[in-house]
């Protein structure tokens, strides 16, 4: 007999799951409860799960993604494939490998590398009544910079299951083992509408940490942190970076080393409260006019964008090679003036003091060494023009 889980929507797709086990159908209906109802007009992803004499098989659109006897491993394999399908189907959106929760229409983005406690912290906040947005793909619309919910099941490692009384999984001693946790196990609810990003938290679980928020003051540093979690910079290019720059510029951000999960959740609530009425600092993108223009023996390389933030930090991004360079105010000024009619030699000569001339020359040589400027062969010395 064929049993069906509730039909849901995954990005642009309608998910349809069939199985020969009524228990499996019920389990998946529960796992996917945070996703909206499926759109009958949407293209379909078909999931088939069979349980034959303790041998489990899972297919996604007829492609086998799991065969074995471990139901929790099967769930991880299926949801991983669904994550990939959603990501590939949304090239017009920006995705961060991050978690997010919401309160009052405002989203807290929880960012960082795997194993730093993002999902665990999100799960505790959901358990406390925060709206669940995602623990896997923070999806941002470039058109309005809003976060679109993706309320998949929350993935938790066995090492933290003991902190959630209602979470159930295989107790096989493997601390790195993961299980997909439905929202109902945490007593949580899903955020249904898009929310505005308001705060960025970078957690770091450390058994010796003191659970203290530490502000990330540099906007350039925050942009780089967000970019390190972004799936899309290679395909979105300048548009994706524009999104990350605006999020970084608008959102107060904190690092949160923690050893106590409840204290960390308290800190997130405090961070959101502190963000209310936050003044958005200024930022500007250096015009790209002059890229490719020859300035004596030098020219600015095509495909490089530079921003300067209200905190005076600057950041250059090479879209073609996906490289970042931090710039101080003088470095930004040098880059900007090299896009004007002045040659590098003229720029050095115009500096008001010997120390400034030396610093300008060092920045020009540094930009050359980093590949942000290109050198033309010339007979007049390294900066002659």
Please give a handful of descriptors for the protein shown.
385 residues; six-stranded mixed beta sheet; elongated; disordered C terminus
Per-chain topology:
Elements: E1 3-4, E2 8-10, E3 13-19, H1 22-31, E4 44-52, E5 55-60, E6 63-68, H2 71-88, E7 94-96, E8 99-103, E9 106-110, H3 118-127, E10 131-134, E11 138-140, E12 147-148, E13 154-157, H4 158-161, E14 178-181, E15 189-190, E16 196-205, E17 214-215, H5 219-228, H6 233-236, H7 238-250, E18 253-258, H8 261-275, E19 283-285, E20 298-300, E21 304-309, E22 314-318, E23 323-327, H9 329-337, H10 344-349, H11 354-369, E24 373-375
Parallel strand pairs: 3-4, 9-16, 10-15, 16-18
Antiparallel strand pairs: 1-3, 2-3, 4-5, 5-6, 7-11, 8-9, 8-10, 11-12, 13-14, 17-18, 19-21, 20-24, 21-22, 22-23
Helix pairs in contact: 3-8, 5-7, 9-11
Description:
- With 385 residues, the chain is of the alpha+beta class.
- It has helices spanning 22-31, 71-88, 118-127, 158-161, 219-228, 233-236, 238-250, 261-275, 329-337, 344-349, 354-369, and strands at 3-4, 8-10, 13-19, 44-52, 55-60, 63-68, 94-96, 99-103, 106-110, 131-134, 138-140, 147-148, 154-157, 178-181, 189-190, 196-205, 214-215, 253-258, 283-285, 298-300, 304-309, 314-318, 323-327, 373-375.
- 30% of the residues lie in helices and 28% in strands.
- The strands form six sheets. The protein has a seven-stranded mixed sheet. Strands 1, 2, 3, 4, 5 and 6 form a six-stranded mixed sheet that branches. Strands 19-21-22-23 form a four-stranded antiparallel sheet.
- Strand 3 (13-19), helix 1 and strand 4 (44-52) form a beta-alpha-beta unit.
- Helix 3 crosses helix 8, helix 5 crosses helix 7 (238-250) and helix 9 (329-337) packs across helix 11 (354-369).
């Amino acid at each position: 007999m064929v049993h069906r889980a509730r039909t849901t929507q995954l990005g642009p797709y309608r998910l349809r799951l069939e199985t020969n086990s009524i228990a499996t159908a019920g389990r998946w209906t529960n796992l996917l409860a945070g996703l909206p109802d499926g759109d009958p007009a949407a293209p379909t992803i078909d999931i088939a799960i069979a349980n034959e004499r303790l041998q489990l098989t899972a297919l996604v659109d007829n492609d086998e993604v799991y065969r074995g006897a471990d139901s929790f491993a099967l769930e991880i394999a299926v949801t991983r494939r669904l994550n990939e399908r959603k990501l590939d189907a949304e090239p017009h959106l920006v995705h961060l490998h991050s978690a997010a929760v919401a309160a009052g229409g405002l989203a807290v983005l929880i960012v960082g590398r795997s194993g730093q406690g993002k999902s665990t912290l999100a799960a505790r906040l959901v358990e406390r009544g925060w709206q669940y947005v995602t623990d896997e793909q923070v999806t941002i619309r470039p058109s309005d910079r809003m976060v679109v919910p993706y309320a998949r099941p929350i993935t938790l490692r066995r090492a933290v299951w003991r902190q959630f009384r209602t979470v159930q999984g295989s107790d096989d001693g493997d601390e790195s083992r993961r299980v997909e946790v439905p929202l109902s196990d945490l007593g949580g609810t899903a955020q249904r509408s898009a929310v505005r990003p308001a705060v960025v938290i970078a957690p770091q679980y450390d058994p010796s940490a003191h659970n203290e928020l530490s502000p990330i003051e540099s906007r350039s540093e925050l942009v780089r942190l967000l970019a390190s979690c972004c799936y899309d910079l290679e395909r979105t290019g300048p548009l994706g970076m524009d999104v990350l720059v605006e999020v970084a510029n608008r959102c107060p951000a904190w690092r949160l080393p923690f050893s106590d999960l409840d204290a960390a959740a308290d800190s997130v609530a405090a961070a959101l409260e502190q963000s209310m009425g936050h003044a958005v600092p200024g930022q500007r993108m250096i015009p790209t006019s002059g890229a490719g223009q020859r300035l004596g023996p030098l020219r600015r390389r095509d495909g490089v964008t530079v921003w300067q933030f209200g905190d005076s930090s600057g950041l250059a991004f090479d879209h073609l090679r996906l490289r970042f360079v931090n710039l101080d105010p003088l470095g930004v000024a040098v880059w900007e003036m090299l896009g004007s009619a002045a040659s590098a030699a003229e720029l050095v000569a115009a500096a008001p003091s010997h120390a400034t001339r030396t610093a300008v020359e060092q920045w020009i040589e540094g930009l050359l060494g980093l590949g942000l400027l290109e050198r033309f062969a010339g007979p007049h010395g390294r900066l002659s023009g």
